[in-house]
Amino acid sequence: MLSYKELIAHETISDYEETIPINASAECKPILVVNRNNYIVYSNQSAQIAFGLNNITNISGMQTDANLTELLSDFSESSYSNISINLRIKNLSESSFGEYDAEIEKIELDNSQYLFIVFHLTEREVILENRINSIHAAIEYANLPVMTIDGSGKISFLSRSMEDILGFTIDELYEKFFCVPLENFLSKADLLTAERAFFLKQSWVKIISFKDKGKILFKELQLTPFSNSGATANTFMLIAHDITDYVQKNIVIKESENKLKSIINNIRDPLFIIKRVKDKSFFESGNNGFFRIFDLDKTKLSGVDLKSVFTNDLLKLVLKNSEVLLNDSLPSVEFKAKHNLVHYQCKISLMDISTEDESYIMIIFNNITDQQNYQSKMTAAYEKEVQLNKLKSSFIENMSHEIRTPFNAISGYAEILEESIKTNDYKTVSELVVLVKEVLSRVSHLFDHIIDMSEIESSEMIFDYVYLNCNQVLKSTYNRLKQRAKLKGIDIVLELADQEVVIKTDWMKLEKIVYAIAENAIKYTMQGKVVLRSFVFSQFAYITITDTGDGMNQEDIKYLLEPFSQEEQGYTRKYQGAGLGLAIASKLTKMMGGLFEIVSRKQTGTKVTLIFPVVKIQS
Fold it and tell me: Is the distance from CB of 501 to CB of 514 less than 8 angstroms?
């Protein structure tokens, strides 16, 4: 089928262009020029659109309610120069009929007869067309991007704003498949999804973005099926809703949320926000510290009443105090709590964004563990200072007593010696000399302990390590104390391991430790026995000194390991001594890499255990 321009270029009809009625050049009404053989030699754009004449070259290809071919043939043979007939003509592209009044006029061009046909819409069709034009005008006025698609998926209409988006005109896209102009915006997978929705006569929605004059625009493509007759959908409408402002606002909101989350996550202290709706608490937000410390999964908190999720005692306490905050209309509530050995100062505050229907509550867990530990250390230091003051007082009392007593005894012995010498009572003199030696030995022993403690406290103690069978130390201690135990009327028992028990230690200091403990055991045992024992267990050497004496309260042992301390204080105490023996033994044992343990029970006795690693000596 030739266009009008092609006719002008190739047909003799161009020579008679001025003879064609003025309506022939009008594009507003469908116009056809047909030769005697019913071939269409010219059709304007309106005719092509109205009747879908893409591939139609003969009038016989048009579908009308009357046989247009016969009508035109009869008219050509008649003597009439023009006629007017009413026809219903099908648009082959849209499969829809239109009602027209066709004015047919004979024209002669170059001795050839042609039929010049102008189609006028009937009044009913005009009304319908006016409505359609009004709709089109409204669409254009509203700048609404719209594409209409016929039942075969071909484009039948584009609004100008849709043309601007797609970058094509209706002339370029008319009767093209609707997915063609979308190829620049959608992936192959999205195009297939759109096609599937079309053929299944389903709705389809997709958001696209593109640049226009350097600005990124966002459109929501919405494909909707509809029917003119109310039956099965035979037409589709594709609308591109402008959602740029909405998306940009969401981007700004998202960026603000991300900034807020970043700020919250950079807060060192655990923090989270609760949204209260009526009597229910919902998780709103929280930082990473909160989720990490309480081992919670944020995905499981969304939309769930926190009472059913917060099983932790501290979090239960938070919810309880949140209710107190709201019920009592308080600005904030603070309390201290502990979780996994960490101390927190918890602050619950009502946020300014709260409304009548919703309340937002922020909870911050301030880690005060260091502060609590510092306070605990200060308290312990204060208690220790008080204890040291008591020990100092006790030391002065003990030293005064321990030093004055032997010197008073020596002074008394001196007077008796003087009398005994005058009376030549040499037996008494001999006995007094022994007693004086014992008193001086006690004073010397006291001074040795004071010097040892001074060296220990000043870290000036020097150790001379050797490989030693500790059974030798127990034997030596046993031999030195068995006479004293016998004089007191108690048994001293030696139970040694069958094999050698070799350890790495300072011989003299280990002997001093064992002797001091065994001497203490004899001192505090009125009846029964003292047992010195050695054995090996799990690569460790054990030395135990057990007595059946008065025993001690277990809670008092830590104080007895402090220097100058005894279970009883003052001049009325039952046993004499400076209170240095156990303290020195404990400290020396630990300094030589051993363990020092005491288990005691009042009126039952005491067991002291020294533990050292066993050393294997190569033969």
Answer: no
What does the pLDDT read at residue 267?
75
> What would the 3-class secondary structure string for 577-616 be?
CCCCHHHHHHHHHHHCCCEEEEEEECCCEEEEEEEEECCC
Structure tokens at 501: 């028990």
Query: Per DSSP, what are the bridge partners of residue 605?
Result: 601
Q: What is the mean pLDDT of residues 260-277?
A: 78
Segment 473-507, tens digit of pLDDT: 999 999 999 998 999 999 999 999 988 889 999 99
* Rounded Cα distance, 206 and 221, in Å: 5
* CATH code (residue 183): 3.30.450.20
In the chain, the number of structural domains is 5
As a whole number of angstroms, the distance between CA 121 and CA 129 comes to 9
In eight-state DSSP terms, residue 287 is: -
CATH number at residue 466: 3.30.565.10
Spatial neighbors of 547 by CB under 8 A, at least 6 apart, are: 521, 522, 524, 525, 528, 529, 530, 531, 605, 606, 607
- Give phi and psi for 373, each to the nearest 5: -65, -40
What is the domain extent for residue 425? 372-455
Instruction: Calculate mean pLDDT across residues 155-164.
Output: 88
Long-range contacts of 231-236, Cβ-Cβ distance < 8 Å, separation of 24 or more: 232/201, 233/201, 234/95, 234/150, 234/151, 235/148, 235/149, 235/150, 235/151, 236/148, 236/149, 236/153, 236/178, 236/198
**Residue of 487, 484, 454, 463 whose CA lies nearest to 578:** 454
| Burial state string for 346-364 with b = 16 or more CB within 10 A and e = fewer than 16 | bbbbbeeeeeeeebbbbbb
Residue 66 three-state SS? coil
DSSP 8-state code for residue 37 = T
| Shared-domain flag, residues 216 and 267 | no
Distance CA 113, CA 106 (A): 7
How far is the C-alpha of 222 from the C-alpha of 139, rounded, in Å? 16
CA-based diameter of the chain, in Å?
192
Last residue of a domain, one of 242, 268, 283: 242
251 — phi, psi (to 5°)?
-65, -45
Domain membership of residue 520 (yes or no) is yes
Q: Are residues 406 and 469 in the same domain?
A: no
What whole-number distance in Å separates Cα of residue 190 and Cα of residue 205? 10
Q: 149, 235 in Cβ contact below 8 A?
A: yes
**Interior angle at CA 264, CA 258 and CA 267, nearest 5:** 145
**Residues 447-472 pLDDT 10s:** 777 777 777 777 778 889 999 999 99
Q: Are residues 149 and 262 in the same domain?
A: no
DSSP state letter for 150: -
- Residues 527 and 530: their CA atoms lie apart, in Å, by 9
Which residues are CB-contacts of 9 (< 8 A; sequence separation ≥ 6)? none
Show the tokens assigned to 41: 């030699």
Structure pTM? 0.38
